Amino acid sequence: MAKFSAEYEKGVQMRGKLFGPAAIARGSVASEVAPFMSQLSNEVLFGKIWARTDKLDVRSRRLLTLAALISVRSTGELKTHMKGALRDSLTREELGEVITHLAFYLGWPTAVHAVRVARDALAESEAEGTIKPAKK
Question: Which domain holds residue 5?
């Protein structure tokens, strides 16, 4: 069994905080295909960058990450980060506001793509019970 650094373990815990306990159990999306990438993700991205909450709080990092992922028209990673943000940082209204704000900087088609991903993220979050259903 491989011994991992303190940063790796810190990163695993940060992933759990950001995406829920299931994220720890399932491991990194890259772990089977690119295990070294998974290790770097845990050690550097989550164990060192996201963990620097004294420099930039988690909510701000979430907003920056969402903006970056929306700008490149991500789908899977964007949905994962949207669901994480809805768990503890953003309301559905704030998520809509982020997308609306970016529409004028990134273009309408990019924003519409983000709306589609957000719709899926919201539906999955409601089904998983991590957010309350929208009021109709």
Answer: 1-53
Spatial CA neighbour of 59 closest among 85, 23, 98: 85
Check whether residue 73 and residue 126 sit in a common domain. Answer: yes
Q: Name the residue type at position 120.
A: D
Are 31 and 66 in the same domain?
no
Instruction: Of 136, 135, 133, 130, give the one whose Cα is nearest residue 18.
Output: 130
127 lies in the same domain as 64: yes
Regarding whether 130 and 63 lie in a shared domain, the answer is yes
Cβ atoms within 10 Å, residue 60: 12
What's the rounded Cα separation, in Å, for the pair 31 and 27? 7
- The amino acid that residue 41 corresponds to is S
Task: Give the tens place of pLDDT for each residue, 79-120.
Answer: 999 999 999 989 999 999 999 999 999 999 999 999 999 999
20-71 confidence digits (pLDDT tens): 888 877 766 777 888 888 889 999 999 999 999 999 999 999 999 999 999 9
Q: Give the sign of the dihedral formed by CA 113, CA 117, CA 119, CA 120.
A: positive
The tokens of 15 are what?
């992933």
The residue with tokens 């550097």 is: 44
